[in-house]
Amino acid sequence: MAQVIQLKPQGENEQIRQANKVYIAGDYARAGAMAEMYLLENPEDAQALTILAACLKQGNRTAIAYTLAKRATELRPDRSETWVGHGHMAQNLWRMEEALSCYRKALQRAQTDAQRALYNNNIGSVYLDLGQFSKAEEFIRRSLDLDPANPKDSNTRHNLGLCLLARREWGEAWKWYSASIGSNYRAEFRYGKEPRWEGKAGGTLVIYGEQGLGDEICAASAIPEVLRSQQEAGGRLILDCDARVEKLFKRSFPGAIVHGTRWEKKLDWPEEERNIDASISAFEVLKFYRNKAEDFPGTPYLKACPTRTQMWRSLHAGKPTIGIAWSGGTWKNAGSFRKLPLDQWKPLFEAIDANWISLQYKDASEEIQGTPVKQYPWATLTKDYDDTAALVASCDLVIAMQTSVNHLSGALGVPTWTLIPTTSQWRYGEGYTDLPWYQSVKLYRQQGEMWPVKQIVEDLKARFA
Q1: Among the listed ranges 11-20, 105-114, 198-207, 397-406, which one has the minimum average pLDDT value?
Q2: Do domains 204-295 and 306-463 have the same CATH topology?
Q3: What does 86-145 look like in DSSP terms, one character per residue?
Q4: Which CATH architecture has domain 204-295?
Q5: Exposed, middle or buried: residue 168 (CB in 10 Å: 0-12, 13-18, 19+)?
Q6: Helix, strand, or coil here: 401?
Q7: Could you report the per-residue pLDDT of 408-454, keeping only the tens digit for each?
Q8: What DSSP string describes 163-177?
Q9: Quick one: CA dihedral 35, 38, 41, 42, positive or negative?
Q10: How many angstroms separate the CA atoms of 413 and 211, rounded?
Q11: Which of these, 156, 187, 395, 398, has the minimum number of CB atoms within 10 Å of its CB?
Q12: How many whole angstroms separate alpha carbon 388 and alpha carbon 60?
């Protein structure tokens, strides 16, 4: 957002100029306070409004930020900076048509190639959010052509990587995707003074999780290969993961040292494990192991507790057991689009006589009233994903919205039918019906506003005939 707030303040006021500098330095609370103080006497200064909006956005107060940014465009519609600020807030509220309109107005008012590059990338980012990866790539490549030598522009390069990953141009994609590591978009950790791992086996290597829980499970697909290479070279592997998957990873990757300390600020590891030779984020590992289609084995790599899995199977004996999740995500990652209300599942429930099990990660006891769906909260409303894994492993089929449980079931090798909204993420690509990460996963895509419920019903009847 630093490039958003270059609009000169009215009257060249030193106070608001300093607020701008403080914002760019990353002290958003102080910059916001300075801008707000200035606005007490100058409530219609577009620069101050834009700075305050940007600061509020950093504090996840996007709804208020949107109102301020929109007001800035009303005050200074002649400036590209106000339009791009407005567009950014609209995009974060998933008002995509409005965001595109704002970015295009910003592009019309751009005065430098650097601005044109930024605004083209912003337009591309909207199409990325909408799951229109080919369209996104057009604008992102245009952005790079306009400003090819900008060393700070990790975001545009990262976005191109997402487009190429969505197209499954693996070898080319990873180098662009890697541009964002260590930026505001993807954190990079250091446990000491060790370098980032460059793929050579040996020594003590730490792989740390990144992004969401589903992402961490997906990225773990190459762990068996890394572990094998490390053991053959006489080295060792430490996995620093989310605490929720610690037990599951320990069982699944014997030979690796597993710590569920990913979110801990201070590590309490044994002294002998602190002499680290290299570290790397989980998704960065894949550039060494997934460069062409045949590099994706698609075979299961997670192992649920066999005793608890058998317990669930005994409980559900006599009927097919189908785990379902009808919503997923949060507002930030298009959660409002990732849902198929339970009343629209009725044709599925009527298609076959089955044990229908909730795999929602939030309490669904009220939602499932009047449906055949059962909830086992000790297995799903838990801070230990090992509990969930045993229940999922006992299922004959999982049908779920695009959410973390699909990665869990795919990594366990459970047959999985995943519902993909139009606003899909890069790993689901454009138009594909399969996932290279997991052979057991099949994709069902939303078409416009319609979900393929009839097709799923037919496939259910065929599978369990």
Answers
A1: 11-20
A2: yes
A3: HHHHHHHTT-HHHHHHHHHHHHHH--SHHHHHHHHHHHHHHHHHTT-HHHHHHHHHHHHH
A4: 3-Layer(aba) Sandwich (3.40)
A5: middle
A6: strand
A7: 999 999 999 999 998 888 999 888 999 999 999 999 999 888 999 99
A8: HHHHTT-HHHHHHHH
A9: negative
A10: 23
A11: 187
A12: 30
Which token pair is 132?
A: 């229109």
Assess contact for 88 and 50: CB atoms under 8 A.
no
Cα(396)–Cα(414) distance, integer angstroms? 7
Query: Side chain identity at 260, as an amino acid letter?
Result: G
CATH of range 306-463; options 3.40.220.10, 3.90.950.10, 3.40.50.2000, 3.40.50.80: 3.40.50.2000
Tokens for 188, please give them: 């990079």
Other Cβ atoms within 10 Å of 447 Cβ, number: 9
Q: Does CATH place domain 2-171 in 1.25.40.10?
A: yes
Residue with tokens 């090819």: 148
Residue 133 tokens read as 């990866």
Dihedral sign, CA of 417, 422, 428, 431? positive
Token pair recorded at residue 295 = 């590099």
- The pair of structure tokens assigned to 441 is 């996963």
